[in-house]
Amino acid sequence: MGSDRVGSDRDQVGSHEEPEARRRAARYQEGPTAPVSGDPVVVCDLDGVVWRGRTPVPGAAEGVARLRDAGLRVLFVTNNAASRRDELTERLVRMGIAATRQEVLSSALAAATLLVRRLAPGARVLVAGGPGLAEEVAAAGLAVARTPPADAVVVGLHLDFDYDGLARAVAAVRAGALFVATNLDPTYPVEGGVMPGAGAIVAAVATAAGRTPTVAGKPEAPMAELIRTRASGRGCVVGDRASTDGRLAAALGWPFALVRSGSDDDPDAPGTPGGAGGVAEAVPPAVTGPRLDAVVPWIVARLRVP
Ligand SMILES: [Mg+2]
Question: Is 191 exposed, middle or buried (0-12, 13-18, 19+ CB in 10 A)?
């Protein structure tokens, strides 16, 4: 069946691999491999800040360079769970922004971190998501499945979403699987407009299953906790959405810099679906600018050690 084409070879990560799965999960839970420096951290969104679709946002590479020149550390934090983190890192490098995989945090990584804490090593996770999500789940020592039964269902953006896949995810959730969403973004910005985001797919599963997911990505607690493992204390969040980036900043207790280079729609309008346990109120931005390089001087002044 065409709907099985994504990752069906991974369906049978068997229990005979459990010792290795346990070792991988144990390593995974050790957290970042690089020591955390004391430099303040700028959490930089990707979609709508660094690029829009495949097009770099003008001034973004220069803006990141100026943040680093000022002694600030930059973490790229995205709700994109469809792309692999290696791909995201390569895209940054191609547009002139030096980056390592460890500096890129995705909602797929946040979801896998949440799952590995809630499940036994080697547990079966039905992935209704793209390659980035399947890769993080597998790297966490969990068994990627595409069909029920499953101990957990994790839902993210995937461009081959279809009715069969919806039915499989719903069946597993209705049967009692832990229900996790990478993020609830209603849309994401591309050249000239927006495309439907993970939130639209999650809503389909949630509606048919009659359950509310635990959300891993911005602005929810799993992503905030992931950032805290990589940050020393002081920081700032720069993004194009108050509903995700602004609320993440509030969760971290950091200022929020809003840029207008991304989402033109207003996802903060009443009725935007929210996840369980999120930060209830969006906070107004501390500074607003047309794009990243325009807010860099404010961020540097705010975070530079006096
Ligand atoms: Mg964005």
Answer: exposed
Q: What is the pLDDT of residues 136-195, one digit of tens each?
A: 999 999 999 999 999 999 999 999 999 999 999 999 999 999 999 999 999 999 999 999
Distance 289 CA to ligand 1 centre (A): 14
pLDDT computed for residue 95 by the predictor? 95
User: Could you give the CA distance from residue 3 to residue 273 in angstroms, rounded to a whole number?
Assistant: 27
The pTM is what? Answer: 0.85
The proportion of the chain whose per-residue pLDDT surpasses 90, expressed as a percent, equals 77
CATH class, 2-29+117-215 region? alpha beta
3-state helix, strand, coil in the chain (%, to 5): 40, 20, 45
| CA 244 / ligand 1 centre spacing (Å) | 8
Q: Please provide residue 260's backbone torsions phi and psi, each rounded to the nearest 5 degrees.
A: -100, 20
Which amino acids are annotated catalytic?
45, 47
Q: Which CATH architecture has domain 41-107+218-303?
A: 3-Layer(aba) Sandwich (3.40)
Length of the chain measured in residues: 306
Tell me the per-residue pLDDT of 205-227, one tens digit each, with 9 for 90 and over.
Answer: 999 999 999 999 999 999 999 99
> Could you list which residues have their CB under 5 Å from ion ligand 1?
45, 47-48, 240, 262
CA of 107 to the centre of ligand 1 (A): 12
The CA 187 to ligand 1 mean position distance, Å, reads 10
CA dist., res. 303 & res. 306, Å (int): 8
Whether the CB-CB separation of 227 and 210 falls below 8 Å is answered with no
152 CA to centre of ligand 1 in angstroms: 27
User: Using CA atoms, how far apart are residues 93 and 77, in angstroms rounded to an integer?
Assistant: 16
Q: If you search the block for the tokens 């001034």, which residue do you land on? A: 59
